[in-house]
């Protein structure tokens, strides 16, 4: 059995992976979570590996999957400051289980490692080098999933050099340009706040707005809360609103406006990435709820009809990989349904297999 951990700012999430069976559970971080996890896993008797999802590894964690132990856990602890509300939970969870279960395989799954080799002109901010040396750079997000998605469609593109744009449709939509399997740009920067707006996050804004709000009497903690938890679709509609409600919920003027802003941002990023790639072979949209996003996928693709992208009328949803594009389309368009736990478990299986083959 593989046990996987992730968290949000309120709950600890975990998933037991037993072959094809996935069992996901969660509990409040304020509860006695260690006892709750122990009860749900029968005190870890069948567990072989424990994986910990790290949201932001900066330039410290350089591999998507790596073994974790009491000897190197300090490297993980150094990452807490990059995204404290998530990374601190990951570090504490890993530290706890490494201490009580030292003989198991403990594996760190880093969400940003895929983007470590972004070109310098892409990853760098125009800030003093002293800040860059401290890890202030564009790191992207959802790297484990963008890497997986691009590999899934690689065999379907009959070209030696491949230019792919991966669109992760989720509450925090993220777009990545991939050339020959390597990322060349990403819509998210140092944190998920940069990029495309979400249910509660503002997305790209002029950074001096922060100081303007501060001059009006707001504390920096309040500004952070405003831009990351009270903005986005929720601010535009005047009520708690997520991406699905904007895309497929009941229509009204405010939600329609929020949808147009979202569509504009997605198309803008894809368009800029096409120019950076020097053209485009395929777009792959992936989500845990792909059906819900089919309308917006169609609207995005229509914006690129001038490049020869043509959608087909019917989609075979029984296939593992959906094909949105017509046979005559100059650009292929695919859809993938993902399960994040399955992808994380596959990373662990690959790492353990390589370690076994090398005799480690």
| CATH secondary-structure class of the largest domain | Alpha Beta
What form results from the Cα inertia axes?
globular
Kindly report the CATH topology of the largest domain: Nucleotidyltransferase, domain 5
Instruction: Give me the secondary-structure category.
Output: alpha/beta
CATH architecture of the largest domain: 2-Layer Sandwich
Number of domains: 2
* Mean pLDDT across every amino acid position: 93
- Order the strands across the largest sheet as they lie in space: 3-2-1-4-6-5
How many strand units?
A: 12
Q: If helices are DSSP runs of H or I spanning 4 or more residues, what is the number of helices?
A: 13
List keywords for this structure.
Nucleotidyltransferase, domain 5; single chain; 6-stranded mixed sheet; globular; 360 residues; alpha/beta
